[in-house]
C-alpha cells in the first residue's frame, strides 16, 4: 500500500490545513485530488493508504457528498477525525475593489457560512460553486471569477490578495474532517470515542425511526449526528447516518449494534475512533443499568441461569 494520503485539493484547502495537524501526515506523501469522490476512490483502488475529507460543519451539518460516498460503494472505515475552526477571506486578483466584484465562488459548503456577509456586502454578486475553496481561488487566479471565499493562507499560493478577512456568519464555526481507509480492526478504545454507522430500515412503517433510535436510547448511548440520506430507490426511501458516543468494544455499544443488526435491513459499520474534542464518553442513563459493568454483570447472570447456578 503506498505511504500516501489523498485529500480534497488542490493545495491550499482547509482540508490540507487540517490534514497537516495529524502527526502521521509528516511521514506520508500528501496528494491532492479534485473531489471527495476521487480521493476516496484512490483508497478503494489502492492508490493511497487513506483519504482525508470533510464530513460535517457546525453550520449546515453533514456534508452530503462525503456521507453519500461512504454510504455507497465498497466499504471504507473512519480512523481519525480532526476539528478545524473556519473563517474565510475574500480573495481577489491584486487591484480588485469590492465594487468590481460581480461573480464569487467557493465550495458549496462555504455558502451557508458566508451567506449573510455576502447579502450585506455583495448583494448583486452571482455565486458559482467550485470543487473546493482552493479550487475557487485558482479559478479567480485564472480570471474565471472575480473573487473566492477561501482561507487567507491560500492567497499567496495563488497570487491573490485578501480583500476582506475574518468572514463568517456564525461565531466559532468548525468543520470536522475524517481520515478514511480500508476496513481493518478499529484502534483500541480511549474512553473518548465515537462510532459511526449507516442504517437501512427493512420497511417504512410508523415508529420505524423510533425503533432504530431506541436501540441506543435504552442503553444510554448519546447520539452526536443523525442525518437521513436518500437511497435512490424512490421518494421516501432513506438510510440514516449516525454518530454515537462510545466504542464498538463497549458492551453497551456492541449490544446496540447487535440489536440494530437484528432489526435493520442493512447496517454499515463506518468505524470506532477517537473523538477530536477528547471529551469522555457521556453515558446518559435514561434507565438504570447502562454502564459496561452492569451489562457484563447481566450477561454473567444469564449465563449462570442457563447453567442452573442462579
Structure characterization notes:
The protein is an alpha/beta fold. It has helices spanning 14-19, 36-44, 64-71, 111-121, 133-141, 154-157, 208-217, 251-263, 292-306; strands at 4-8, 29-33, 50-57, 61-62, 77-85, 88-92, 103-106, 126-129, 147-150, 161-167, 174-181, 193-201, 223-230, 238-245, 264-274. The strands form three sheets. Strands 1, 2, 3, 4, 5 and 11 form a six-stranded mixed sheet that branches. It has a five-stranded mixed sheet with strand order 8-7-9-6-10. Strands 13-14-12-15 form a four-stranded antiparallel sheet, with helices on both faces. α7 packs antiparallel against α8. The longest helix is centred in the last third of the chain and has 15 residues, at 292-306. The radius of gyration is 22 Å and the shape is elongated. The chain starts with a strand and ends with a helix.
In short:
The chain has 310 residues and is of the alpha/beta class.
CA-to-CA gap between the ends?
53 Å
Task: Tell me about the largest β-sheet.
Answer: 6 strands, mixed
Radius of gyration, in angstroms, nearest whole number: 22 Å
Shape: elongated
Low-pLDDT stretches = none
Strand content: 25-35%
Order of helices and strands: EHEHEEHEEEHEHEHEEEHEEHEH
Q: In DSSP terms, counting alpha (H) and pi (I) runs of 4 or more, how many helices?
A: 9
* Share of helix, binned: 25-40%
Quick one: how many beta strands?
A: 15
Q: Specify the structural class.
A: alpha/beta
Q: What's the rounded overall pLDDT mean? A: 91
Amino acid at each position: 500500500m503506498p505511504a500516501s494520503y489523498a485529500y480534497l485539493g488542490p493545495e491550499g484547502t482547509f482540508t490540507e490545513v487540517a490534514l497537516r495537524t495529524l502527526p502521521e501526515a509528516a511521514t506520508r506523501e500528501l496528494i491532492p485530488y479534485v473531489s471527495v469522490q476521487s480521493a476516496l476512490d484512490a483508497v478503494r483502488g489502492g492508490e493511497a493508504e487513506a483519504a482525508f475529507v470533510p464530513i460535517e460543519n457546525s453550520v449546515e451539518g453533514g456534508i452530503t457528498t462525503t456521507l453519500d460516498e461512504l454510504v455507497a460503494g465498497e466499504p471504507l472505515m473512519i480512523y481519525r477525525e480532526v476539528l478545524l475552526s473556519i473563517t474565510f477571506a475574500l480573495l481577489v486578483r491584486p487591484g480588485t475593489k469590492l465594487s468590481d466584484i460581480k461573480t464569487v465562488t467557493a465550495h458549496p459548503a462555504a455558502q451557508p457560512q458566508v451567506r449573510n456577509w455576502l447579502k450585506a456586502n455583495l448583494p448583486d454578486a452571482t455565486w458559482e460553486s467550485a470543487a473546493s475553496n482552493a479550487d475557487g481561488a485558482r479559478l479567480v487566479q485564472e480570471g474565471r471569477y472575480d473573487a473566492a471565499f477561501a482561507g487567507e493562507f491560500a492567497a499567496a499560493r495563488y497570487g491573490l490578495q485578501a480583500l476582506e478577512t475574518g468572514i463568517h456568519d456564525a461565531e466559532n464555526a468548525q468543520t470536522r474532517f475524517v481520515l478514511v481507509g480500508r476496513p481493518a480492526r478499529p484502534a483500541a478504545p480511549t474512553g473518548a470515542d465515537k462510532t459511526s454507522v449507516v442504517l437501512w430500515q427493512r420497511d417504512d412503517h410508523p415508529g420505524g425511526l423510533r425503533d432504530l433510535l431506541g436501540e441506543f436510547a435504552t442503553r444510554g448511548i448519546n447520539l452526536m449526528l443523525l442525518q437521513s440520506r436518500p437511497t435512490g430507490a424512490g421518494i421516501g426511501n432513506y438510510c440514516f447516518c449516525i454518530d454515537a458516543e462510545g466504542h464498538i468494544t463497549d458492551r453497551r455499544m456492541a449490544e446496540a449494534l447487535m440489536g440494530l443488526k437484528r432489526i435493520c435491513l442493512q447496517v454499515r459499520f463506518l468505524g470506532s475512533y477517537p473523538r477530536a474534542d477528547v471529551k469522555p464518553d457521556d453515558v446518559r442513563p435514561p434507565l438504570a443499568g447502562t454502564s459496561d459493568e452492569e451489562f457484563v454483570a447481566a450477561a454473567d447472570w444469564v449465563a449462570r441461569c442457563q447453567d442452573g447456578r442462579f
